[in-house]
Amino acid sequence: RRFGTKCTAWQQGIPPTQVVRKAQDFVYHLHCFACIICSRQLATGDEFYLMEDGRLVCKEDYETAKQNDDSEAGVKRPRTTITAKQLETLKNAYKNSPKPARHVREQLSSETGLDMRVVQV
Questions:
Q1: Are 110 and 68 contained in the same domain?
Q2: Taking every annotated instance into account, which residue ranges of this chain make up the domain LIM zinc-binding (predicted)?
Q3: In terms of residue numbers, what domain contains 82?
């Protein structure tokens, strides 16, 4: 028990008579050889991804997750266009106080129609 082969998923010992599945140097109980996302049992010949910590992800779930990450990474917020009047208002306010307090920034935001983050930056 102490020194025998252990299941990567559960860290429980595997008796020598039990059927196992292997992925590289990792060993799993037959029922533990499953996708961590959809819990689908992986069979011989199924394509899957092996994470560094030994967790398994079926090809479909991996590609879906990767596609979602790629689409979120590519989304940028539109650039803010500041009009001459807004710029003049901001310049005057920051000339009077280079580090305006929050309530002053809120007032500038409402006067100019710009987002608070834009006024702060």
A1: no
A2: 5-68
A3: 77-120
